[in-house]
Amino acid sequence: MKLRILPSAMEDLYSGRLFYDRQGEGLGEYFFDSIFSDIDSLVLYAGIHPKTFGYHRLLAHRFPYAIYYVIEAGVATVCRVLDLRQNPDRTRRNLVSD
Fold first, then answer.
1. Residue 97 and residue 32: Cα distance in Å, rounded?
2. Residue 72's pLDDT band (boundaries 50, 70, 90)?
3. What is the pLDDT at residue 93?
4. CA proximity to 32, closest of 8, 4, 9, 2
5. Most buried residue, 8, 38, 69, 70, by most Cβ within 10 Å?
6. 75, 6 in Cβ contact below 8 A?
7. Are 57 and 68 contacting, i.e. CB atoms less than 8 angstroms apart?
8. For residue 79, which of 9, 1, 2, 3 has the smallest C-alpha distance?
């Protein structure tokens, strides 16, 4: 399976990295690497994750984030990478706005 990451997902990743950079030295880079490792797993496991708000949702292994993606024509497209600590209504609004 091929992967594609939308600009909205990259913005989410950079925001998360900035947040964790402020929490401790090297934590932002660790966040970035961990989430990308989870995204890379979609090459093998795309489509097995349950759907939430119309998107497949992969829960990150090391951080409280969810990776929302769709599959079209053999391509897993990562649409958003959202913090699970936010209000579910905000998550829904973020996903609907795409």
1. 24
2. very high
3. 87
4. 9
5. 69
6. no
7. yes
8. 9
For tokens 């998550």, the residue is 91
Q: Hey, what are 63's tokens?
A: 């951080």
End-to-end Cα spacing for the chain: 22
Domains and CATH numbers, the chain: 2-96 (3.30.2310.20)
DSSP string, 11-77: HHHHHHHHHHHHHSTTHHHHHHHHHHHHHHTHHHHTT-SPEETTEEEEEPSSSSEEEEEEEETTEEE
Burial (0-12, 13-18, 19+ Cβ within 10 Å), 71:
middle
**Contact status, residue 17 vs residue 31, Cβ threshold 8 Å:** yes
